[in-house]
Amino acid sequence: MADMIDLAAPEDSVRSPAAQVRRLPRSVEWASACAERAPRVRGPFPGPRSLALRARCLAGEFGSYPWVDRVPVAFETGQGVTLTDADDNVYIDLTHGHLGAALGHANPEVIEAVHRQLGRLSHVRNQPSGIRAELQETLAGITPGDLNLMAFYSSGTEAAEGAMRVARAVTGGHEFVSFYGDYHGRTTGAIGTSIGSRMTGPRPGGFISVPNAYCHRCEFGLQPSSCGLHCLDFAERAIHMNSHGALAGIVAEPITNASGARVFPDGYLRGLRDIADRTGALLIFDEHATGLGRTGRMWGGDHEGVVPDVIYFGKYLGNGYPVTVVATREAYREVLAPERQGSTHGGQPLACAAALASVQILLRDNLAEHARLTGDKCLAYMQGVAGRHAIVGIGQGRGLQLGYEFVDPKTGVPSSEVVDAVYKAAMARGIVTSPVGPTLRVSPMMVTSEAVALKALRILEEAIAEVGSRLA
Predict the structure, then answer these.
(1) Which of 152, 192, 215, 310 lies at a CB distance of 3.0 to 4.6 Å from 346, suitable for a disulfide?
(2) What average pLDDT is seen over the chain?
(3) 81-96: pLDDT as tens digits
(4) Which domains, and CATH codes, for the chain?
(5) DSSP letter at 155?
(6) Is it true that the peptide bond before 48 is cis, omega within 30 degrees of 0?
């Protein structure tokens, strides 16, 4: 690792092997130093300036995210792992825009890269450029297997649709299998593979949804020690019963995001690979939440040595600048040529500059390994929290893709109401998380130090304890 700075050890201990363990990568040192005096929440909450800005925004919007409605805080600035709202309250950020700014708010290296490119060329559509070629070549060095053919987009949903177009072109089919609790986007095709709602309407034809291997709450009521991964057998039977011989793809998250960092048992991802091979479908991994080192390996599939046929990823690739990627096998080059994949803003020079800077920081500072080490400590603490508090069903995840499930303490049933209460209590203490259903996503940035991450988790436990005492 380059440019390491030791914050913990005295000057004369820097040369000892033990001190080396405590040294922080440059990006982690910078981003976490911003949290030295965070969190800090004062006065009425949410504050008057936040409420006024919320009213202004609502005047021109027809909808908003429900957790914004619950705690309408207006964030005005961010620095490293912290956010500051319009009323000068300072927070430690454990969600960073749903994982979109994992290298820290206002990261100076990303800012400099975008500023430099802005002075040269800000936007063209799909034309070749040096910055585009350099990003492609850099990504090809880290994508799994031979997944070296790429298309660039500007949103996660676009990438999901692009991945499905690849599968249709390669297989000639149009059907897709996906899994309960996964989320891949909001357009018609993407929502066919995702959690739906009344507003999205019915799942389109040709889309099959089946249970995944969530052993904590098995859909079949089986025990992982004896089930033999029954969910895989069920999925394959569901394909044979529901497919009309036109299966194009199996779409999965290696570890879930929207349903709260569910980690699947060993053998599950390999089993999906086997089903894809037997059915002729492409195996597609949505690596938005798990890719680029977040789980402690470069890709979520790496934990089982599984190389899918297509991955799509983004989230923090541009560290807040919208850029996403579909990567697929070189063997598909000829069949994909007529597809002419493209996007007005996908892969434009500014996006490529932000993405290239982000990947360079990731590799230089070995942030995947940092995520593994820090995540192990965080997960151990969260599992302890689950043992101490009756409202916590489970603390789970891998690396820095983490989450809690919350339950009614009297019934043990997963509870969105308990999550809502914990989310509000955490925000009032200056800890920003992300609630969805009965789960609370708790994802420190890739540049969060172990000390800062554990400080945030301890404060979050105070919020859990407060809510638990009210419900006891």
Answers:
(1) 152
(2) 90
(3) 999 999 999 999 999 9
(4) 11-93+367-471 (3.90.1150.10), 109-364 (3.40.640.10)
(5) S
(6) no
